[in-house]
Amino acid sequence: MTPSHAAGTPAQPSATDGVRRVSVLLYSDDITVRDAVRAAAGRRPARDVEVAAWRECATAEAVIEALDVGGHDVVVLDGEATPVGGLGLCRQLKNEIFRCPPILVLIGRPQDGWLAGWSLADRVVPHPLDPIAVSEAIADLARQRVAVG
Q1: Alpha helix segments (H runs only) across the chain
Q2: Pairwise CA distance, residues 99 & 4, whole Å
Q3: Is the pTM of this model over 0.90?
Q4: What domains are there in the chain, each with its CATH number?
Q5: What phi and psi, each to the nearest 5 degrees, are found at residue 143?
Q6: Considering only CA atoms, which of 104, 116, 110, 145 is closest in space to residue 128?
Q7: CA nearest 62: which of 36, 35, 81?
């Protein structure tokens, strides 16, 4: 991954209905966590945000390859993933990808919030996952991506 790589074109609101259609990259080595995130966010995490596509990755290498290709508007990383945790991966992505998409990190407990600051995460949600917190975070990051783009 090169520092000058752009991570894809941000989602734009549809001219007809004002809904942002976004692509979400989801990383966890645990399929139950990936299922929980998709169920929490649903197809429409907010009235103005629709998840048009999910890209699921079970390894850090797959995340890096997917971001090299581009086209993802929001990234969700499991901080509890092994062998590469989402917090360290987040810091790597933020330091290496030009215009890195906003990243939500799922942390093990609320007390780990300081680690999220170190990782440069844009938002955090602690386990156990609260569906409202997950959907709000994804929607907010999708809006942020459009505003920056």
Answers
A1: 31-41, 60-69, 86-96, 113-119, 131-148
A2: 9
A3: no
A4: 20-148 (3.40.50.2300)
A5: -65, -40
A6: 110
A7: 81
Residue of 43, 45, 84 lying closest to 63 (CA atoms): 84
Residues 6+ apart with CB under 8 A from 60: 27, 81, 84, 89
Number of Cβ atoms within 10 Å of the Cβ of 95: 10
Q: Are 83 and 57 in contact (CB under 8 A)?
A: no
Q: pLDDT digits over 97-146, tens only?
A: 999 999 999 999 888 888 889 999 999 999 999 999 999 999 999 998 75
Q: pLDDT tens digits for 72-104?
A: 999 999 999 999 999 999 999 999 999 999 999
